[in-house]
């Protein structure tokens, strides 16, 4: 059951350049999408989210784009910094009673100095 | 910034033993969750809890699992008789409401069943 898919297990980017992380989903009932960052031995840390009524949300260096017709979202990090090196999880939820999250498998981002 | 705290950070137990994982959610949050991540796999939803009862649970959350909010601050996950396949990172999370609001996660408890 892969309702949320992150097809790239890893990504390497040079410091200062743009990092683009991608995520696809299959469940049309999802209406809220989030990106979490995770360092080893820590829990997922919320980064940025977007609801299905928008197609873009920006917070500092982080921008999330949502393409509902393609069931695709992406996270752009500009400029990338070495401290951004972590695993990035895409997650989605629908309008259930408790809004549990369905996670993708994660993408390991490495930002090279 | 308020955070979700989990104890212990690492728990080792023998197969068949009971374990209790503890969490202190963020104080003004109303919705509480347990997730787990088996090594190399996705983060998976286990259970959500609101108003002192389970809101939703996944098929993973069978009769061996239970949750409780024994007082105004703690939220616990009990595994009655652990199996080898219960070895995983267990994450507690909380949220102020079920509108479009992110979940805030603790740093997890690594459970190792031998």
Descriptive terms for the model:
A: 113 residues; mainly beta; 5-stranded antiparallel β-sheet; B: 114 residues; 7-stranded mixed β-sheet; 0% helix; 50% strand; globular
Description:
The complex is a heterodimer of chains A (113) and B (114). With 113 residues, chain A is mostly beta strands. Chain A has strands at residues 4-5, 10-14, 19-25, 30-38, 45-51, 56-59, 62-67, 72-77, 86-94, 102-103, 107-112. In chain A, the strands form 2 sheets. In chain A, strands 2, 4, 5, 9, 10 and 11 form a 6-stranded mixed β-sheet that branches. In chain A, strands 1-3-8-7-6 form a 5-stranded antiparallel β-sheet, with no helix packed on it. The mean pLDDT of chain A is 93. Chain B has 114 residues and is mainly beta. In chain B, the strands form 2 sheets. In chain B, strands 2, 4, 5, 6, 9, 10 and 11 form a 7-stranded mixed β-sheet that branches. In chain B, strands 1-3-8-7 form a 4-stranded antiparallel β-sheet, with no helix packed on it.
**Any low-confidence stretches of chain B, pLDDT <50, length ≥5?**
none
Largest sheet of chain B: 7 strands, mixed
Helix and strand element order of chain B: EEEEEEEEEEE
N-to-C series of helices and strands of chain A? EEEEEEEEEEE
How much helix, percentage-wise, in residues of chain B? under 10%
Structural class of chain A: mainly beta
- The total count of strands of chain B amounts to 11
Question: How confident is the prediction overall: mean pLDDT of chain A?
Answer: 93
Structural class by helix and strand composition of chain B: mainly beta
The end-to-end distance of chain A, rounded to whole angstroms, is: 37 Å
Q: What's the pLDDT, averaged over the residues of chain B?
A: 93
């Amino acid at each position: 059951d892969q309702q949320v898919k992150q097809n790239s297990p890893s990504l390497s980017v040079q410091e200062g350049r743009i990092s683009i992380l991608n995520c696809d989903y299959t469940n049309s009932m999802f209406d809220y999408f989030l990106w979490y960052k995770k360092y080893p031995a820590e829990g997922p840390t919320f980064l940025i989210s977007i609801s299905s009524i928008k197609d873009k949300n920006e917070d500092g260096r982080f921008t999330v784009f949502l393409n509902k017709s393609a069931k695709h979202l992406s996270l752009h990090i500009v400029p990338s910094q070495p401290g951004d090196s972590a695993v990035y999880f895409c997650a989605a939820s629908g309008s259930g009673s408790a809004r549990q999250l369905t996670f993708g498998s994660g993408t390991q981002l490495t930002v090279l100095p | 910034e308020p955070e979700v705290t989990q104890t212990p950070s690492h728990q080792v137990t023998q197969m068949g033993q009971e374990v209790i994982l503890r969490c202190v959610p963020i104080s003004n949050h109303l919705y509480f969750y347990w997730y787990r991540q088996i090594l190399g796999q996705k983060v998976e939803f286990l259970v959500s809890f609101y108003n002192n009862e389970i809101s939703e649970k996944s098929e993973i959350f069978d009769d061996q699992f239970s949750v409780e909010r024994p007082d105004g601050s703690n939220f616990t996950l009990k595994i009655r008789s652990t199996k080898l396949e219960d070895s995983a990172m267990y994450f507690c999370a909380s949220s102020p409401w079920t509108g479009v609001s992110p979940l805030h996660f603790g740093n997890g408890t690594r459970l190792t069943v031998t």
